[in-house]
Amino acid sequence: MLTHEQVQAAISAQLDGEAPQLSPDVIEAHVSGCSECAAFRDKAAALSRSLSVVEPAGVPPHDLSDVILAGVEPEWQRASSARQASLTLARVALGVLSLAFVVWAVVVVVSASGLTTLASEGTLADGADPGRAHLLMEAAALRFGIASGLAFAAWRPASAPGLLPVACTMFAFLCGFTMRDFALGSVAAGQVYILIGTGLATVSLGWAWAADRGFLLHDAFRAISASPR
After folding, report:
1. Between 20 and 30 A from 191 (CA), which of 29, 37, 113, 137?
2. Packing angle of the helix pair 4-15, 35-54 (nearest 10 deg)
């Protein structure tokens, strides 16, 4: 898997006039979707231009790798630390949500266990409701599925984009029916809980995907609020 360090080393080699270990197309494709490496290239190019201005005439250019890395390393370290912190928090959120869905699924299974009780003569006991028990077991299976997906995304954040459309679709679908029932005055607490749960799952998966790709929330706000020159 291509890492930020490999791309940034290739960018440094390009600026030094050396042959990078990665092809220019690969570098450009990565930089176009990675704000961290794009910022590295901009800073490195600016530093390289400033050094070329003061280079004495007739003196062959020196290897600028160490100079460039020394100039951009502090900012790169800050960006990398912020990215790691954001990714860690997103993974913790996914893990907590996964555990919450597991507990919720167990509670649903327990509540359904008494709805299929048989009487001594082999018939259903009073209060038994097999139809409701079946629906509750399906709801428990859904919660277990969400929990396993969130746990996998917490373990492998790179898988978050594959799970994000599922969580987002569930949230949108449930949101529509919950708003309808709310308007009719027939909304139940369970509808609100599952809506909140799928909403938090969608946000956490999106957060993990963005952090894994190197996107930070403050960078987005800064880009939106930037004034054109």
Report:
1. 113
2. 20
